[in-house]
Design goal:
It is built from four helices and 14 strands. With about 220 residues, it is an alpha+beta fold. The chain is globular.
């Protein structure tokens, strides 16, 4: 490659400033090509250094992103989540009953485990069962209900007329019996509702409620 003096570098700069369309002589084209090599080679090295410095960061982010996406947060289940998780029928004491999706509630814990409760159509059961069986309760975690411990499993539940909240196994055997509370401040009572309460929840049936939290 021919030597380039300070004068030729200045002339090259002038040629670059003019552009090939304005200065298309062989001398300028040769210097322009030479200048392009001088410019692009360092830029290529810089770009490679930048890429090598950024790539490990991108790799770390790519590996960590799935973990961030899989993290769960404690929250009350949305209507879409309830539709996906709530069964259409529920087995209790020898027969199935339709589940009322419109009266379904639930929450998810930080580890992804769920707790579901929903009212059922208990009209096909005897009067004695109907007095305490109003809905299904499915929990993937051990719960504390009104001070009583309840292992993970599938149950029936109900608020009784004498102020009790009952939980039964699927054979209709009593598992939990605790006092329910009445909230006179509730203005628009609904059949079933779940409300956050500190580190737990309040499960409402009308104006009656019981405290539920994971143990």
């Amino acid at each position: 490659m021919p030597k380039t003096s300070a004068v030729s570098i200045r002339r090259t700069a002038q040629g670059l400033a003019l552009g090939v369309s304005d200065c298309d002589c062989a001398w300028c084209l040769e210097r322009i090509e030479f200048a392009a090599v001088l410019i692009l080679k360092p830029l290529g090295a810089i770009a490679m250094r930048i890429c090598f410095r950024i790539s490990p960061l991108l790799l770390i982010f790519a590996l960590a992103a799935p973990a961030f996406c899989q993290q769960k947060s404690r929250h009350v289940l949305s209507s879409d989540e309830l539709k996906k998780a709530t069964p259409s029928e529920y087995f209790f004491r020898g027969q199935k009953a339709p589940v009322q999706l419109r009266n379904a509630v639930g929450f998810q814990l930080a580890d992804g485990k769920m707790v579901l409760a929903a009212l059922v159509d208990a009209s096909g059961y005897s009067t004695a069962i109907q007095q305490k069986y109003q809905g299904m309760l499915i929990t993937e975690a051990q719960l504390n209900i009104g001070g009583s411990s309840l292992p993970a499993g599938q149950y029936g539940f109900g608020f009784t007329s004498d102020g009790k909240f009952m939980v039964m196994d699927v054979g209709n055997n009593d598992v939990v019996s605790t006092s329910s509370q009445a909230d006179a401040a509730v203005q628009h009572a609904v059949p079933l509702k779940l409300v956050e309460d500190g580190d737990g929840y309040k499960l409402y049936a009308g104006k009656n409620w019981v405290g539920i939290k994971a143990e």
